[in-house]
Amino acid sequence: MQKVIKGLLIGLSLLSIAACSKTDNYPGPDAGFMGRILDKTDPEKGNFLTETSGMQIKLEELSWSATPSPQTIPSKADGTFKDTELFSGHYRVTPTAGAFWPVAGEELDIKKGNNTHDIAVTPYLKIVNLTHRFEGSTLVMQFNLQAPVTENLPRLLDVQSFVNVTKYVGSGATIPQYTSESTMQKIAANWSDAIAQRTFEIRIPDIKEGRVFYARVGARVDDSYKQYNYSEEITVQLP
Amino acid sequence: MGVLFACNKLDVKPLNIIQDEDVFTTENGVNAYMATLYKALPIEDFYYRNNDGGFNRGWEHFWHPGALCGELAGPYGSLGEGAMGFGYWPYDNIRNVNYLMATLPKYAVNFDKAKVDQWLGEAYFSRAYFYFALVKRYGGVPIIKNVQDYRTPMEQLQVPRDKELEVWNFVAGDLDSAALLLPETSQRGRANKYVAAALKSRVMLYAGSIAKYGAVNYVDGEARIKGFVGIPAAEADRFFKQAWEAAHLLEGHYDLYTKKMADDKVQNYADLFLDPSSNETILARDYSLTSNTAHSWDATMICRYMTADGLSRAYPTLELVERFTGPLPIVNPDGTPHRFDSLADIMKGLEPRLLATIYFPGATLRGLTFDTQRGIYEHFSGTAEAELGVTPPNLLFRHLASNTNVLWPENTGRRVIGFTGVSTDGDNTTRTGFYVRKYIDYSKPMADCGLYKSTQSWIDLRYAEVLLNRAEAAMELGNTSDATAMINKIRNRAGAAPLSGPVTIDSVRNERCKELAFEKQYWWDIRRWRIADRILDNTRFHALLPYYLNDEKKFIFLREMETFQRPYSFEKRFYYEPLPGGELGKNPHLYPNNPNY
Q: Chain A interface, mutation test: which of B539, B572, B576, most A Cβ atoms within 10 Å?
């Protein structure tokens, strides 16, 4: 029995070595696709305020198939995207799954080597006039909401705070105790002048002394994706 | 001469393949054929899970769909693990049904007409069941009602999707055909006229609520624009009416199980799921040791302390408990935690149905007590709220443990945690303070509670659900008096007081969630009500954690997060599962895929 097992093991190990000796002869990925996601409404032409994977660039490789399986490039925290392992070809490129008005896809060729392409979107909401102060150990953040386009704007859901110890801060990177039901403010209403004029205030109690935190606030609407539109990050430290 | 003879008879039917006439000429043959259909029916029984193959999976029954949506705190790390399905695509089974429908009439002369009708009725019933399982997952799918021949051109074999509305109508039509053909009664585990009606009440309720609520809360996309997902809202009332009528048909033929009501309402409710003679059971699936179908519910929903083998990983949430009780009386008016002499005191005055659905700390099973304890406080001062805040005042006096060997005070004291939890390590004892009781065979000796040793039946359709279907349909149609009557019937059997105040859609839904807890319905309910993305929005679930106060010799309960603190978020696209990638590859006419996939 032992001999049989040993024999089998030797055979298997030989096979496993033999099996790896031949790589396939298909060409590897030869193209990269990268760029900025721009906020159409920003006069300073800044990047769209988002978080890691706060939106996706959907790619459909039309030169491969009329009904290709979509692949996506997630956004980086700074509002850019980059994928260097793509195949060159003709693609439909659609920004999607983020807190902005839906846009139609754009067909373009991704050529060998690096391709740079910027994409502009219109956010549902913008957070403006953000101020912050400490009351004891409670961080108080005040801000207003703005809607670049108000017609047919989906119902507003809520505003929420996000706090992290690095500058990568958002709904996917936050300290749960600073992003909870008690820091969330439900709006649950359609856009109105009253909301435009309202000053929102989020209070985050028990901020730890001496530590540097990165904080931002976000607001959501009830669209298909329920992602947040963010403020810029601010750095806070309780002395 | 020899040459001439030899070629005479070469076209002999192969002996190693079972021919139509072998199957369809005898009753046993047809019954065997039916057995394969019943076995394949997508009944979401003990074995069913939302991921990894779905039906007929192994012993790990704690991969329960309830653990994806807040009924249970369970092993799913995130909602995405189960929400996108497992590529269910039962067209092989549908072909078997279609084949039976096409072939059996040719052999009908061999049987009584009643028999043939019954078999055809069962075929319609099972085909409806398969399409129901498809449409509730994907929306519109190709409706195949004939046996496809592999010799037809590829183009015709690649059938495009039908609209979601058409599939729901098709399912309703098949169930109507089934009800016309089927007899009044049937052998256990098989369909009859009322089984078909009961399923129809469920199906039509789903269709109605998807029409109504899916018209408001949806994800836009090509598939929606073309009607492959989504039903026009105007269809809702027609579906609700059909649901109500189908449910009404069962009146007088089945009833709620009340055999032991007079003696003990808890016992009565627990036994409803264990008594094979229950008059509430409409369609059940049976299991046995001899047929190698026995399941592992007893060994995987209760921790190893009370079983012979296996382990548990899914535990009822406090949110589910609070559907029955509201906030439990664990805090005094001054905010301090209420002191209990024994754990079991928490169960005083609770609804019998709740106690028969969930094991509380202090309950007993197989001669053992759920000694559930999160830890020991040397002493405890102040309020529960302060203790649950960011800087708990008694933290320094609190002792937790990963296993039952840890004592406090060391060596001489008592166990810091109970044998049934709550541990700081792992999830093989409760994370919430509770255990599932529904379907647990409490009279089985511990030694028999092993893997693949449980034989209690899964009740796929029972009369209580039919009443709830009827109540919800009535409510949606504005018939509040009928809804109230049905809900109070359920509540009476549950040992609860009649509804106080006017009935609302929320009270009807809440009753459904309570009555059908752990029956693998809640996942589909929150989907069809289109509320899943609201109630599962970075949501964490809660636990009822008991602590022993060493100086006072009393127990307190704290309402804490379940020990893993897992957040669950339901993306709106999950209201439909993606069409399986392999099928899209084989049939380009299935495009467009559902929105956002």
A: B572
Supply the DSSP symbol for A170. Answer: B
The reply to whether A232 touches chain B by the CB within 8 Å rule is no
B20-263+576-590 under CATH 1.25.40.390, yes or no = yes
Q: Is ipTM over 0.90? A: no
> Are residues B390 and A225, on separate chains, in Cβ contact within 8 Å?
no
Decide if B572 and A177 are in contact by the 8 Å CB cutoff: no
Task: Report all structural domains of chain A as residue ranges with CATH numbers, in order of start.
Answer: 31-121 (2.60.40.1120), 126-237 (2.60.40.2060)
Model pTM?
0.92
Q: Which two tokens stand for residue B111?
A: 């049987």
Judge: B390–A97 Cβ closer than 8 Å, yes or no. Answer: no
Judged by a CB distance cut-off of 8 A, whether residue A177 touches chain B is yes
In angstroms, the separation between the Cα of residue B572 and the nearest Cα of chain A is 6
CB B34 within 8 A of CB B119: yes
pLDDT digits 0-9 by tens, B331-367: 999 999 999 999 999 999 999 999 999 999 999 999 9
- Number of Cβ pairs < 8 A linking chain A and chain B: 33
Give the mean model confidence (pLDDT) for residues B45-52.
92
**Where in chain B are all domains bearing CATH 1.25.40.390?**
20-263+576-590
CA A96 – CA A54 distance, rounded (Å): 10
